[in-house]
Each structure stands twice: as C-alpha cells, then as structure tokens.
Amino acid sequence: MKKTLFLLVVSVIVFSIPSCANKNKDTTQTENTYSGIMPDKDNAGLKLPQGFGALKAAEGLGEARHLAVTKEGDIYVKLSDLKNGKGIYWLHDANGDGKAEQMKGFGNFIGTGIYIKNGYLYASSNTEIFRYKLNEKGEVINQDNSEKIVTGLIDRHQHESKSIVLDDNGNIYVNIGAYSNSCQEKDRTKGSSGRMPCPILDSAGGIWEFKADKLNQTYGVGIRYATGLRNVVGLDWNTDNNTLFVMQHGRDQLHDLFPDLYDSKQSAELPAECMYELKQGANCGWPYIYYDEIQHKKILAPEYGGDGKKTGGEDAIDPVVAFPGHMAPNGLLFYTGNMFPERYKHGAFIAFHGSWNRAPEPQKGFLVAFVPFKGGKPNGDWEIFADGFAGTDVIQSTNDAKHRPCGLAQGPDGSLYVSDDVKGTIYRIIYTGR
Amino acid sequence: MKKPIIIFALIVSCIYLFAQQSSQLQASKARGEKVYEQYCLTCHQKDGGGVPKLNPPLIKTSYVTGDKKKLINWVLKGSTENVLIDGKYYSNNMAAQDYLKDNEIADVLTYIRNSFGNKASAVTPAEVKGVRATIK
Question: What are the structural domains, with CATH classification, of chain A?
C-alpha cells in the first residue's frame, strides 16, 4: 500500500515536470489566433508540447510526400505513388471544421516536390518540374494544362526525388540527389574505394537553380547552386536572411562497409543528418567527408582514406545544425505564422521520416523537430516538437512505423501541416493554449 | 507376414529421413540467421520487411520463395535494378555478396526461405557452387 502511494506520488511529480517546463516557456504567448478548429480527442495520436493540439485533416492519400497550402486554406499534396491514376491531390474543407471533405486528383506523374508561388502551383516528378496557373482563389485553372519548366534531370533510382523551393527573385531551386551512397567504384560494396574525383557531382549530388518562368530548361541553362550534397529532401527559403537552407541525408553503412573502424552503435549514430545554410557556390563535402556530430568535426570518409578520426574537407562548409544519424529529414519549414507562441516564430521545423540504417540498433526519427532561430541563425538546441507518428515506442524494423512524417507546410492561420507517406494522413497541428 | 514388416520399416525410414532432413534444414536455418544478422539485416530489417521504396521485402515474394537459381544469382551478383514487387518499386543498389562461402549463402537462403512467414525448400552448398560456376 505504501509502495503504491509512493509510486503514485513519484509519477505525479515526474509527469508534471515537463508540462511545468512547457508552461513556463509559453508565457511569452500573448495573442492566440486559434481559428476555432478543434483538435482530435487523441490529438491524432501525436505527442505535442503543452498548449498544442492536432487533428487529421485528411487520411488515405497513400504516399503523401510534400504539400502546399493556399491562402484560402486548401491543400495540395504530391504523391509518390498514383492514387486512382493521379499524382497530385487538392483537398478542400468546405464546412470549416478542419477536415477536408472534398478531394480531387489531377496530374498523372508521381514525385515529391510541390510549392506555391506568385500565382502558380509548382510540382515535380523525379525528372521534371511543372507548373499550373492558379486563379484568385488559389485553385488550379486547368488541371490538364501544365507548363514544363525543367526537364531531363537525372533519375537513377536512388535518391531520385526532386524537392523544390522558390525564392523571391523568380528562381526555383531543385535537389538532384546522388545516385550512390558514398561514390564508391561499386556502390555499397565492401572493399570498393571511393572514386576520385567523384564524377556524379557533375550532374547530381547538389542543388540546381533554374528560372521559375522559363519553359523546358535543362542542365545546360541551370546553375549548379551548391554541391557536395548526397541527398536533400527537405529544403526551404529563409525570408529573414534571404538564404536557402537544406537538410542532407547523410551516408549509410559505416559499420557494414568498415567493420574494423566502426561498431554497429557508432554506425547508428554517425554521420550527422545536417542542416546547411547555402550561399551560391557552397560545397558541403560529400562524398569525401562526413560530419561527425559527436566530435563536431568534418571527418574524412573511409572510402577516401579516413579512419574515423582524420579530418578533411577544408573547402567544405560546416552544418548550422547537426542531428543524430539516419533519421532522414524529409521536410524543412521556417515558421512565419502568428498562431504559435513567439519562440516558434522564424524557427525551423524539420520532419524526420525515420531511419532504417540504424539496425540492429532500434530505429529513430519518425518525428517533427524544432530549432529556434534568430536573424536566420540557430538560437538554441534542437528539440522534439511532435512525436508519436509511428504509433509505437520501440521501432525495431522501419515497417513497424504506422505513419512517417515527410512534408511540412504552413496554413494561412499559422497551422502546421505534416504529411505522412505510409498511409497518406495529413496532420494539422494547432495552438490552443490549453 | 513379411509384407507388413517391410511396409512398417519403410514408413519408419521415411519418417526418419524426413526428420533428418527437417533437422538439417533447422540447423542450416540457425546458421543462416547468424549470416543474415551480419550481412543482410541492416537493409532488409529484422522482420525481413525491407524498407518502403528502398530495400525490397523478403516476405512472401517469388524472388525469395521461387526459383533457387535466380535467388542464388541475385545474392552472388547483387543488383542495380529498380525492383518491382507487388506494384511497388525498390530503388537501392545491393552489393554482390560473392565473398560469402557456398555454405554461408546456402544457410542464409535457407533461413530467409523459412522465416518471416515463408516456407520453401532448403538451399544446399552444392546448388550455390553450381550457380557460382556459371558466373565465373
């Protein structure tokens, strides 16, 4: 009896600590622009900081990758697998309860990237970028009539998705992922050395810049804006310092390929998943180096003579934030809304798709993280913002995860939308102050 | 009088042979699990389910439970194909595993053909040797 009472007291204390901490954090909150939409009773299964709630805005879209929300609150979702023959879905909430009642598919191509800018909806396949003209209500005028902006991008069925973002000067940026793990002579093969120089970097492994309004552009007219990036899925334009930020998926298999240099625990943590701030001409170092978030150093890749300690990449930039390995950052969004408490404004949300390359260690990720920013620079450590997508605490195999966060978008009221590409759930996270 | 004895002896030896075969399969499977953990688990995962879009699942697919020669070939040569299973593509490259010995490949294939809900015949080192000879 005494024991039960003791446990009860302890758990009350333990469980009240985080909520106290969060309450203190949120005291800066002055105005709540919460638009009357109710969170689901179970917050859509998510664990969120105090004062936040979540609802499922839509379900059953399948492989929902990135998404974009119009000024009117309609949602466009890009799918990497056709649903009823369509690769883009338009979702509309007619009665204002936050749940989309109307869904309409168009576009017959699969892909990841989608973005709204200057009256157009831009969407990418794994080789091309298209755009659709929007009317004043943010609706696609002619779903059968798109303009091809970019064509002929490399897709060698590894890191093939093309994420896109636009700046305020009429440019579109697209990730072209490297079709390789670490640019070995033979990909992912033990004992195969790194190619020097890595020929992949000529046409992939970086970010390319194109004009947002010119048709049929190819490599010849595009600019290789940044290089040495193995694969980027999440990227966003930061309007505070007018700069492109990207999230790199770090290399795999340090232990599998170099068991004498890395044990499986080190291989699960290394290398870091990195956030980079990119100026034109930036080199992030892949495949020659990787970033070690424990030593805080750029380490020479073992395929290029590294031993886990030797540093390298003097010409490569450092990340602005380094996360644990293999969590797979698939979405990046700088928050500019007014709904969330002040500390979230200008900060970065990152959707982590969740790992596979941490096995035999348990998998990690499957969450949305937050990094506070000030003036375009990180202003504090990263933290978990939304968790519980996977629906289970221990994820031994990647398929154990019931949902995996992929894309992020901000609604006109400041809601944060998160897409899931396992079942195609669209989550809407709101601040209620309760 | 002799006939029933012969039949009885035949039945007993059949059971014995079957039991022996099955215990051989179990032993090979147990050794194969160790090989799987060391060389295959990272990509194909502990549950054999693979990783969506990247690494193919080993569960109830004809690649695993079908033609043994094709399966042995796959392991020895690796793959740079975009593999289509049940309407889904899997895009990661698989390295050639030709550094593994015949008996290791036989064991690991026997393991995956009889795990994750799969049930198929064992693979023998002689079968691996036979396929390896056609590659070299």
Answer: 40-431 (2.120.10.30)
Q: Which residues of chain A have pLDDT under 50?
A: 1-33
Q: What is the DSSP string of A143-203?
A: TT--EEEE------SSS----EEE-TTSEEEEEE--SSSS-BSSTT-TTPPBPSS-GGGGT
Say if the Cβ atoms of A397 and B78 lie within 8 Å. no
What mean pLDDT is predicted for residues B52-71?
94
Q: Are A44 and A56 in contact (CB under 8 A)?
A: yes
Query: Chain A: nearest CA to B19, how far in angstroms?
Result: 33
Contact A189 B95 (CB under 8 A): yes
> Which DSSP state fits B112?
H
Query: A361 to chain B nearest CA, in Å?
Result: 9
**Which chain A residue lies closest to B49 (C-alpha atoms)?**
A399
**What is the tens place of the pLDDT at every residue in B40-58?**
999 999 999 999 999 999 9
pLDDT given for residue B9 in this prediction: 79
Q: Label residue B18 by pLDDT band (50, 70, 90).
A: confident
Report residue B12 as tokens.
């007993």
pLDDT in tens, B75-114: 999 998 888 988 889 999 999 999 999 999 999 999 999 9
- 3-state class (DSSP) for residue B24: helix
Q: Write out the residues of chain B at the interface with chain A, using a CB-CB cutoff of 8 A.
A: 37, 39, 41-43, 45-47, 49-55, 57, 78, 80, 82, 88-89, 91-96, 99
Nearest-CA residue of chain A relative to B48?
A: A397
- Per-residue pLDDT reduced to its tens digit, A139-197: 999 999 999 999 999 999 899 999 999 999 999 999 999 999 999 999 999 999 999 99
Nearest partner of A74 among A57, A49, A87, A61, judged by Cα: A57
Query: Taking CB atoms and an 8 Å cutoff, what residues of chain B touch A400?
Result: 47
Q: Give me the sign of the Cα torsion angle A258, A262, A268, A273.
A: negative
Comparing C-alpha atoms, which of A126, A280, A153 is closest to residue A217?
A153
**CA pair distance A349, B66, nearest whole angstrom:** 46
**Residue from B92, B98, B116 to probe the interface with A (highest A Cβ count within 10 Å):** B92
CATH entry 1.10.760.10 includes domain B2-135: yes
Euclidean distance between CA atoms A13 and A3, whole angstroms? 15
ipTM of the complex: 0.86
**Which of A188, A262, A266 is the best mutation test for B, with the most CBs of B within 10 A?**
A188
Examine the pLDDT at B16 and tell me if it is beyond 60: yes
Q: State residue B11's pLDDT score.
A: 81
pLDDT at B1 (0 to 100):
56
Q: Hey, are the CB atoms on A187 and B95 less than 8 Å from each other? A: yes
Smallest CA–CA distance from A185 into chain B, residue: B95
Looking at residue B67, its pLDDT comes to: 95
Instruction: Give the per-residue pLDDT at B13.
Output: 76
User: Distance, in angstroms, between B122 CA and closest chain A CA?
Assistant: 26
Nearest to A399 among B45, B93, B99 (CB): B45
